[in-house]
Amino acid sequence: MSNLAVAVAVSVFGMAAASDYKVEQREPIHHVFTKDTKLDVDNVNGTITVIGDNEASMRVDGEKIVRGADQSEVDRGKRDVVLDINEKDGVAQLYVNGPFRNNDHASQDHGFHEHSDRRYEVIYDLIIHTPRVMALNLRSVNGAIKMGDTSGAFEVHAVNGSITMTNMGGSGHVNTVNGPVQVGFRENPRSETSFKTVNGRIEVTLQPSLSADIKVKTFNGHVYTDFDVTALATHAGTAERKEGKFVYKSNRSQSFRAGAGGPELAFETLNGDIHIQKQSR
Question: Within 13 Å and on the Cβ side, how many CA atoms surround 136?
Fold first, then answer.
């Protein structure tokens, strides 16, 4: 079983400064899903950690942390913000709900709105053990997402937080706005897969047998790979070999082929370097 550390979440949405929280209460979370093949988690403030193992069930452990200016605000936070736990059509669902959600219509602020009179914060730190073969849909606004030892399709999205994935199989999409992306594959993706952040570094480690078409884009950064690649379609920009690695510098999208080619692997960041690394034996 992987040893995945849980990070500390950052809370926003118009709440008071941390120094204003005088009272804190913590509640443990325990739940078992026994028959689902997909996990869907929608968190707001807090971390998500998913660990694949050999058990048939899916076990949720975690903690609800409520901080407030006084006891009445803590009690208010406990009432306002809840973790909805559901099962539907083979999907295990964990959904953090509260007054910050805009449930009437979708909006450009990701469905959230501020309640500036609140003097509390509620954090859900979730640790979920799943079977190794599991489809994953994980979302968090403020907090890191960590996962390891799973296979299957994945959709992983954060706003303010890093994304770390270790010993992975499967294919999918990884996206955060503020934070680095670090992914290690024990099996190379077999279908289209993408990695994206706005502010942060992308570091992806793949198996030496990689055959894929690689698309990269960074504005303020460099692209590094130790795979032998050939340019596709567009000019590869400035290239040089440095300490055994190919180094490409470009502020526009470029495409390359590794091996005999295959599924498209896309890497994009605005501010940060991209590292596409070969797993050492």
Answer: 34
Distance CA 68, CA 48 (A): 23
pLDDT at site 101? 83
Tokens 């005088």 locate to 22
pLDDT at position 59, please? 98
Alpha-carbon Rg for the chain, nearest whole angstrom, is 20
Number of residues that make up the chain: 281
- Both tokens of residue 170? 């499967």
Percentage of residues in the chain having pLDDT higher than 70: 83
What are the distances in angstroms from CA 230 to CA 9, 32, 195, 235?
41, 48, 21, 11
Report the largest interatomic distance among the alpha carbons of the chain, rounded to a whole angstrom: 64
Q: With 80 as the cut, is the pLDDT of residue 140 above it? A: yes
- pTM for this prediction: 0.84
> What is the distance between the alpha carbons of residues 47 and 45, in angstroms, rounded to a whole number?
7
Kindly list the distances between the CA atom of residue 131 and the CA atoms of 186, 230, 267, in Å, as whole numbers in the listed order. Answer: 16, 38, 28
